[in-house]
Amino acid sequence: MAQVPSNIAFIKYWGKRDEKKQWPTNDSLSMTLSGMFTRTTARLTDAHDFSFALNGTPLAPDSAKGAKIYRHLHFLAHELGTRQKLDFTSFNSFPTACGIASSASGFGALTLAALAAFTDSKNLEELQQQGFDAKKLAQLSRHGSGSACRSMMGGIVQWQAGATPESQAVSQLFSREHWDLNDLIVILDDTPKAVSSSDGHRAAVKSPLFAERMERLPHRFASLVEAITARDIDKFGLLLEEEALNMHAVAESSDEGLRYMTEKTHAFINKFKELRKRWGLQAYFTCDAGPNVHLICEAKTVENLTKILHQEYTQLKILHDEIGEGPSLQVADQGIGQ
Ligand code: PMV
Questions:
Q1: Nearest ligand 1 atom to alpha carbon 104
Q2: For labeling, which of 27, 71, 102, 228 is most exposed (least CB within 10 Å)?
Q3: Cα 112 → chain centroid
Q4: pLDDT at 94
Q5: How confident is the model at residue 194 (pLDDT cuts 50, 70, 90)?
Q6: Of all atoms in ligand 1, which is nearest to the CA of residue 103?
């Protein structure tokens, strides 16, 4: 069984220089989560094609969600030069259709389970001996979903775009132990998002704000890394918010006028900022390609922040997670992918 956690981006991957090669326009940085993960099991089969079920429901290759998954499986088989077919079962640890980006954990776990089965590896060490270390796993998983590559390592992870598609690289910048960051995910809307992140990447490069974003990003990236190095939560938090708002400004100002943050998101962020000021809370927000809000803070802030949020909103759904270790792989002897 392959277990791969999700991640939350501090500097967003937003835009591709080359869609086919999954080459991003900019370097990105994220925190690998812990409790929000996908578990995937792969078994060898005599069937003529792959099969895949998510949370007990089979996904057909011609379904909107299924197409990307089956395409990635054929890509992996081609990379390994194998004709073997596999049967996958996959489960998310977090509520499904919750509008939380699950593609990072999903494609990460799919890649890891497939490679373990293709190479008959029982754990990460055996997989590494076959030539598939974390960097290689990252390079392969990004073809399913770009953000998946950062989930292949724990702690705080950077994905460098590099000067060519071939020189892009994923590496751990800080281990989990460096900083006890937590993520309170506030679920404002639990319906699946209407606009995919693929559409967002395509639209981003056409925004009139995109060139300015590219110009400012290296400095924002360096300042954020400085703040993380110094464990300076306030400096870190202001940069985190600046980056999230900038990414969403780019999405909204593109020709297509993509809107991921809704009225509810804005209303919540305004209220949250008011509460932060009133109670002196050291917590900061970021949003991915969806309406839900991630509140990032140190472990010591979680209890108070949760209490204050529940006082203000009696029905608020909050998922709590923290910085994590990265993927794991355990395959039982009796069957591949068990
Ligand atoms: O990996 P994708 O193609 O689903 O893109 C992810 C985009 C964001 O989640 C918005 C940002 C990021 O870096 O994770």
A1: 1
A2: 71
A3: 15
A4: 86
A5: confident
A6: 4
